[in-house]
Amino acid sequence: MLLSILALAVAAPNACLDQTSTVAMVDCLTRRARQADARLNAAYKAARARVPTRQAAALQAAQRAWIAYRTANCRAYALGEGTITQVEAAQCALDTTSRRADELEAFSRRN
User: Fold this and answer.
1) How would you label 66-104 residue by residue, b for 16+ Cβ within 10 Å and e otherwise?
2) How far apart are CA 108 and CA 45, in angstroms?
3) How far apart are CA 33 and CA 20, in angstroms?
4) What are 60-94's pLDDT values in tens digits?
5) Neighbour count for residue 27 (Cβ, 10 Å)
6) Which residues 6+ apart lie within 8 Å of 66 measured at CB?
7) C-beta of residue 22 within 8 angstroms of C-beta of residue 86
8) Is-contact 36 97, C-beta < 8 A?
9) Which of 20, 52, 53, 108 has the maximal Cβ count within 10 Å?
10) Contact residues for 60 (Cβ-Cβ < 8 A; gap 6+)
């Protein structure tokens, strides 16, 4: 069962790109990015709860810097030319957020 859930999670971004319009692709990717963001927030809270205060403060600073990076990086995609940039920006948000959630989950397991 876990493997099928993982397979679905991996296939999900590609399923969004199979939509028939740019608007549908962006909507799908945006929904997926919101789900990834919820996962990210849960992983961040779990990581913060497991570390000493000094380390939690450093983690908070790192998370704030990461949010600024994600915003600036994905905005760069959005400022390109053509409607594909909307898809690229949404894909950026999904991919970047998912990778950070993975990282925070691993961090939490180590501590």
Assistant:
1) beeebeeebeebeeeeeeeebbbbbbbbbbbbbebbeeb
2) 9
3) 19
4) 999 999 999 999 999 999 999 998 999 999 999 99
5) 14
6) 100
7) yes
8) yes
9) 108
10) 48
Q: How far is residue 55 CA from its own chain's centroid? A: 23
Q: Is the pLDDT of residue 1 over 70?
A: no
pTM: 0.83
Q: CA nearest 110: which of 64, 26, 51, 59?
A: 51
Which of 94, 91, 107, 89 lies closest to 37, judged by CA? 94
Q: What are the tokens at 37?
A: 């963001």
| Half-sphere exposure (Cβ direction) of 6: Cα atoms closer than 13 Å | 4
Question: Within 10 A of 50 (CB to CB), how many other CB atoms are there?
Answer: 15
